[in-house]
């Protein structure tokens, strides 16, 4: 695209989690990551001991340490201010989540998490060039193009043909020798190859393998995702996967509602995401639920689930990409918060912390919009470092370069080959490639390159989709032309500075609707016309009305004809008018075209023909019967159902049990996990735990049930453990333990 930003970040050996450098592709257009990054409830940065030399990079972290994110030993040792992560100097690349990892300048790969093996950063591999971490899986790419994974292999995501975990030694993925990048998700791993295709391996849950032909639960050998080519970056979070191609388009697949395609359906094939154009970077956290995308013009978009407070745009679930920030040069998507960096070198955050704050100099709280934070006000914080050169060609053909530099020591001098100057804007720049040099007050030199396009910007092309109007009014295009025929139209407008905007329309013009109705009117009956008028006299009625605002007129020609059928005589019957409390009985009316039952208490339905009645006390039920094939009008009939008290319930330990499975999918069947026989229980303690021992539900109320959520979030299908200790009304004690399977 003409006029696109074609600048590069200052050369540095310190790369954060969004890097595309050193993997065979380079960064797309001008994008390069800054020295900041985020993970699960924690954030990180690289500091330089020499402001002019980034070869001795020390990794710092702050925020939560519930899962050992700060690498400072077992147990939570969180910090609200940056602390040096032990043993991690000379870092070239880092990535973080529950499990965290880094690659040093010597190619050694390191990981850390709160367990007995990796409570402190520990070297696990050599010759590493890329790394991505899932929730409990680390996936390395070596310089020779092979892929190696360590720790959790529950879903076969190691790609070695097994589901065997390995906590001590990385395991090589089978048959892969040309990998350049990897993405570690919750259920599967993904590998970007040198030919720009993508492999997937692991669980096919929710279509995460990107191939609808893979119908088994788990695949332990990698396979190519069909139709996905030209890819330069991949990212995964807990529910979906995003892939960026060389043209700046984004593809997504996985759990419905998280893939940005505007609906809640699972996507088992990669789908092109509408509304994302000329993207230079994508970001996602392995245990998060949203993606960020950055385009070549500094616009940041988000899509996914924001119930956890990551980014607030007025809706809890963003089904399509939504613009959330402008003037952005770096994006970092965490689990419950996100960072962005703007072109002036300022750092901004949104969301919330878990334990210690990720807010640096600000008070720890939930923030639903991006708020500037200032690392320079926090002891131990690293300054942001970077340089971006943005070329621009106006509609009249004139070109300029604007340089944004941050880090180092101000004031700065800028040079594009014609001598240094204090200002950061160069006007009337010649077309072609330029080398931009920034020198700070300490003599540190930062160099970037950019290309100035000889042409002005391409016209802005906007697909307006389908527009509709009534044929008698036509449709007026933005240029002022009114069209009176349905079809496809291209409309061009020109701004005051001469730039074109081209809009594409599919115009649909609708004629009037003309409807002829004949209605049989019973004696004494009234009829409500479409415009709301109520009439009772047979005859012809002509009504012109709108169904809704913006619709075309609907013309009704209605003839009311007197009916010659006799009046309806309503009756209601039942097999037995006496039942015991807790029982149900079928109510049967005389023939009719519609029925209205009342009262609704204890009825299975109020407008069906044959409802079931389940009253808890003696109740009179009535039905209004309207029109049948042989009668006309309405009539009412009633019937009294007498309810007898049931025999006293016999309570015994055998009547107390906990079902072994439930499916909380809101279909009204088996949605809740309850203790059965609650009426016999006078006191109890009922606890449910996940496989890591976390208590996800507890109750002392015999009538309380679990809905399959924890902290307000629906849990994934899994097997849980329960324990029940209860005292019955007869004084006997009951203890139960066992498994509960959650199915969705």
Structural write-up:
With 744 residues, the chain is mainly β. Among the domains are: 390-452; 460-510, no CATH class; 513-562, no CATH class; 572-644, Immunoglobulin-like (Sandwich); 654-742, Immunoglobulin-like (Sandwich). Helices cover 0% and strands 47% of the residues. The chain contains no helices and 59 strands. A five-stranded mixed sheet has the order 53-59-58-54-55, with no helix packed on it. Strands 1-2-3-4 form a four-stranded antiparallel sheet, with no helix packed on it. Strand 33 (432-439) and strand 34 (445-452) form a beta hairpin. The model is unreliable at 1-26 and 307-315 (pLDDT under 50).
Task: Please report the first level of CATH classification, the CATH class of the domain at 654-742.
Answer: Mainly Beta
Distance between the termini: 45 Å
Shape: flat
Distinct helical segment count: 0
Largest sheet: 5 strands, mixed
- Secondary-structure class: mainly beta
* Number of DSSP-assigned strands: 59
Indicate the radius of gyration in whole angstroms.
34 Å
The CATH topology annotation of the domain at 654-742 reads as: Immunoglobulin-like
Kindly report the average pLDDT value. 85
């Amino acid at each position: 695209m003409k006029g696109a930003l074609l600048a590069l970040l200052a050369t540095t050996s310190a790369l954060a989690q969004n890097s595309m450098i050193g993997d065979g592709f380079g960064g797309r257009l001008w994008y390069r990551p800054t020295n900041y990054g985020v993970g699960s409830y924690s954030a990180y940065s690289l500091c330089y001991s020499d402001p002019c030399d980034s070869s001795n990079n020390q990794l710092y972290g702050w925020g939560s340490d519930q899962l050992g994110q700060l690498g400072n030993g077992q147990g939570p040792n969180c910090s609200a201010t940056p602390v040096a992560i032990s043993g991690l100097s000379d870092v070239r690349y880092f990535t973080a989540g529950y499990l965290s990892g880094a690659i040093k300048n010597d190619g050694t790969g390191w990981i850390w998490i709160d367990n007995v093996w990796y409570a402190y950063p520990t070297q696990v591999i050599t010759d590493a060039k890329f790394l991505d971490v899932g929730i409990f899986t680390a996936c390395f790419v070596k310089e020779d193009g092979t892929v190696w994974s360590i720790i959790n292999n529950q879903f076969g995501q190691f790609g070695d043909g097994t589901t065997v975990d390995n906590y001590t030694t990385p395991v090589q993925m089978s048959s892969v020798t040309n990998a350049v990048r990897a993405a570690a998700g919750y259920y599967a791993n993904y590998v970007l190859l040198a030919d720009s295709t993508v492999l997937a391996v692991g669980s096919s849950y929710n279509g995460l393998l990107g191939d609808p032909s893979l119908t088994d639960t788990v695949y332990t050998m990698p396979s190519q995702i069909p139709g996905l080519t030209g890819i330069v970056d991949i990212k995964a979070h807990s529910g979906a996967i995003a892939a960026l191609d060389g043209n700046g388009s984004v593809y997504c697949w996985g759990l419905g509602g998280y893939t940005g395609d505007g609906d809640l359906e699972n996507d088992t094939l990669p789908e092109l995401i509408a509304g994302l154009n000329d993207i230079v970077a994508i970001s996602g956290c392995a245990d998060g639920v949203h993606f960020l995308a950055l385009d070549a013009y500094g616009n940041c978009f988000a899509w996914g689930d924001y119930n956890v407070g990551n980014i607030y745009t007025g809706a809890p679930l963003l089904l399509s990409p939504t613009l959330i920030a402008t003037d952005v040069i770096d994006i970092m998507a965490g689990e419950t918060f996100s960072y962005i960096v703007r072109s002036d070198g300022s750092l901004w955050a949104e969301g919330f912390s878990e334990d210690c704050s990720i807010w640096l100099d600000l008070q720890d709280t939930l923030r639903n919009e991006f708020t500037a934070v200032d690392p320079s006000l926090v002891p131990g914080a690293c300054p942001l470092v970077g340089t971006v050169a943005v070329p621009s060609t106006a509609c009249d053909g004139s070109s300029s370069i604007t340089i944004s530099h941050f880090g180092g020591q101000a004031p700065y001098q800028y040079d594009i080959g014609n001598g240094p100057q204090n200002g950061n804007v160069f006007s009337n720049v010649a077309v072609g490639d330029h080398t931009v040099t920034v020198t700070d007050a300490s003599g540190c030199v930062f160099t970037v390159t950019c290309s100035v396009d000889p042409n002005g910007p391409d016209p802005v092309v906007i697909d307006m989709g389908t527009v509709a109007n009534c044929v008698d009014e036509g449709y007026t295009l933005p240029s002022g032309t009114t069209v009176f025929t349905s079809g496809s139209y291209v409309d061009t407008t020109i701004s005051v500075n001469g730039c074109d905007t081209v809009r594409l329309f599919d115009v649909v013009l609708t004629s009037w609707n003309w409807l002829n109705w004949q209605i049989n009117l019973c004696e004494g009956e009234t009829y409500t016309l479409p415009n709301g008028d109520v009439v009772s006299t047979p005859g012809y009625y002509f009504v012109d009305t709108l169904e809704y605002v913006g619709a075309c007129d609907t013309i009704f020609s209605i003839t009311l004809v007197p009916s010659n059928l006799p009046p309806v005589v309503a009756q209601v019957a039942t097999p037995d008018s006496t039942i015991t409390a807790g029982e149900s009985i079928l109510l049967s009316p005389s023939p009719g075209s519609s029925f209205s039952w009342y009262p609704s208490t204890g009825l299975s339905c109020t407008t069906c023909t044959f409802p079931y009645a389940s009253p808890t006390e003696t109740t009179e039920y009535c039905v209004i019967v309207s029109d049948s094939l042989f009668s006309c009008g309405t009539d009412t009939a009633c019937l009294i159902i007498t309810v007898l008290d049931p025999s006293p319930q016999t309570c015994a330990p055998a009547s107390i049990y906990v079902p072994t499975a439930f499916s909380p999918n809101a279909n009204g069947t088996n949605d809740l996990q309850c203790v059965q026989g609650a009426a016999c229980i006078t006191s109890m303690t009922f606890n449910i735990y996940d496989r890591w021992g976390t208590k996800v539900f507890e109750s002392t109320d015999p009538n309380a049930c679990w809905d399959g959520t924890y902290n307000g979030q629906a849990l994934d299908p899994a097997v849980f453990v329960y324990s029940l200790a209860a005292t019955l009304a007869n004084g006997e004690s009951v203890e139960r333990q066992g498994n509960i399977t959650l199915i969705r």
